[in-house]
Amino acid sequence: YQRRVHGAKSPPPPPPRIRGGCGLPQIQNLSHEHPLELSTRGSWSCDGCACSGSGKDRYRCTEGCDFDFCGDCFNKSKDPPPQVSLGTHLLMLDLSAEEYYLSDTTDITATTVKDFMDKFTAGSLKGHKFA
């Protein structure tokens, strides 16, 4: 977090989870690089499905990462990941306006990135509010 300077604006609030907030499909069958173990410590929310952990089994990272799965996500994480292509998207986040801009092409080249940025600079891209 930035230190607040007299007269300066507060930093914007953190964005929602990026994929869901921008209307993109969620990736299922998440995993974590360290082992997880059943834990009963404190309040928490699931890093897989974002549900409140209240009343649910909690599987916490054994290496000290701030990472938790609910029982459902922990069980799903054991399944092999699906072979799904979500395609390539050029996406720009404007955190101060709480908006995002999504390109109309999935062909990402230096030319399409420059065109996308030129459209943004010209104000001709349609912004979408985070969901």
How many individual β-strands? 6
> Oligomeric state of the chains?
single chain
Supply the number of helical segments. Answer: 3
Order of helices and strands: HEEEHEEHE
What is the CA–CA distance across the termini? 23 Å
What structural class results from the helix and strand content? alpha+beta
Radius of gyration: 19 Å
Q: What ranges have pLDDT less than 50 throughout 5 or more consecutive residues?
A: 1-5
Beta fraction: 15-25%
The biggest beta sheet is recorded as:
3 strands, antiparallel
Shape: elongated
What is the average per-residue confidence, as pLDDT, rounded to a whole number?
79
**Strand order within the widest sheet?**
1-2-3
What percent of residues adopt helix (DSSP H or I)?
10-25%
Description:
Helices cover 18% and strands 16% of the residues. The chain has helices spanning 18-21, 71-76, 110-122; strands at residues 36-39, 58-61, 68-70, 91-94, 99-102, 128-129. Strand 4 (91-94) and strand 5 form a beta hairpin. The relative contact order is 0.18. Mean pLDDT is 79; it is low at 1-5.
